[in-house]
Design goal:
Length: 249
């Protein structure tokens, strides 16, 4: 059956997303595996259609039906829409500024798969930055740039415009050298100035965040000025019925 795969026949020559490959790609990559997990997901409460998660393929219809009917419980299932593959061109992202404006065509902002990415979050993040900067250009304001150290959006855009994308790009924590710093709990501090400049915050929200940021700064200062001796630490641990963790060599 694998001979009908467009990957095997050469009809498809490009590389698909690494993290959600087709069933035929999985068979080719892991020929020693005899089983593969399939998840049956109901499309909605108002539909009797089921999405067969893990069965992505662009094989001919007859091949899809034959393979599907080998799955226990789906021997008589009817395919409502056959799987298919889409190959698309993309704009080399090194032709873009960090604002996602095209270097060659002023006023053209690109976001999403056209930049060589894959995934909803990646597309939404680019759309946010491209939309903000397109609006700011119309208003004759300077563009907003997000650095790698400020957010994963910055990591993604920096990777896209400075590195090649031989396969659809996905954002991963491992791509960021600042991943221990890029946490959800400090996002309001990292991106406060930019969100304020863009105009996303109401006066009430600005006041609330400024107060919260000041409290964090003051608490950090307070903690930096606190020091305890080894004896004090051990006495505290003893009072808590804990063993001594601090000992001199």
């Amino acid at each position: 059956m694998l001979q009908y795969s467009p990957i095997v026949s050469g009809i498809i020559e490009t590389h698909g997303p690494r993290h959600c490959p087709s069933i035929d790609r999985k068979v080719l990559n892991f020929p020693d595996k005899t089983e593969h997990q399939i998840f049956l997901e109901l499309e909605s409460l108002d539909s009797d259609e089921i999405y067969v998660n893990g069965f992505t393929t662009a094989m001919p219809p007859f091949a899809q039906e034959e393979i599907l009917h080998t799955i226990c419980g789906l021997e008589h299932a009817k395919i409502m829409r056959y799987g298919y593959a889409v190959e698309y061109d993309y704009v080399p992202a090194f032709q873009l500024y960090p604002s996602l404006e095209n270097k060659k065509i002023s006023g053209l902002f690109c976001a999403g798969q056209i930049n060589g990415t894959s995934g909803y979050e990646e597309a939404a993040a680019q759309g946010l930055i491209a939309g903000i900067n397109a609006g700011r250009k119309i208003l004759q304001k300077s563009p907003i740039f997000i650095d790698r150290s400020e957010a994963y959006i910055g990591v993604m855009i920096d990777d896209l415009i400075h590195k090649k994308t031989p396969e659809p790009y996905r954002v991963l924590p491992s791509r960021s050298e600042y991943r221990l710093h890029l946490r959800f709990d400090n996002a309001f501090m990292r991106l406060y100035e930019k969100t304020k400049e863009i105009g996303l915050l109401s006066p009430e929200k600005i006041s609330f965040l400024e107060e919260a940021i000041e409290k964090v700064i003051q608490e950090v200062k307070r903690l930096k000025n606190i020091s305890i001796s080894m004896q004090e630490a051990n006495q505290f641990l003893k009072n808590k019925n804990c063993m001594d963790f601090f000992q001199r060599e």
